[in-house]
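Reopening this ticket.

The earlier resolution said the output was attached, but the attachment link was broken on my side. Pasting everything inline this time so it's all in one place.
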Amino acid sequence: MLGGEHDGREDYGLHLAKLGYADVVVISDPYGPGDSVMARVCNSTSASFRVICEHPDPSTTRGEALLVQRLAHEYSWRSVIVVSWKFHLVRARYIFGQCFDGAVTMRAVPRTYARPVWRWAYTYAYQFGGLGKAWVVGC
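Inline output:
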């Protein structure tokens, strides 16, 4: 799970693991100590899957992709499922495509977001700008 709003992505990722889609759940934890959601989900390891919570460096989508790449080499993963919010998936797919050697499946948190129009305009501008930055910076 990529960091961001606590919008259900953590529980959705754990749900996918409970359904058998993964035996390891990696949760990006850029929030710092004292975050109650992270305290709960980072202790959700079960008999069928393990949870790894780590702070990405840098604390960006690129840092999260580098974290996953490092863990993939360490554990010999050939594929990952990336969970984030719907409007981040294009940029995240591009970044993971640059930084991760294996197959990447993108999954959006299944929910709706009620926002005013100005907020959507900002969201799309931010994602488009981030995609341009990813193109320039690379992995």
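Reporter confirms the inline version is readable. The chain has a mean pLDDT of 92. The first strand starts at residue 24 and ends at 28.
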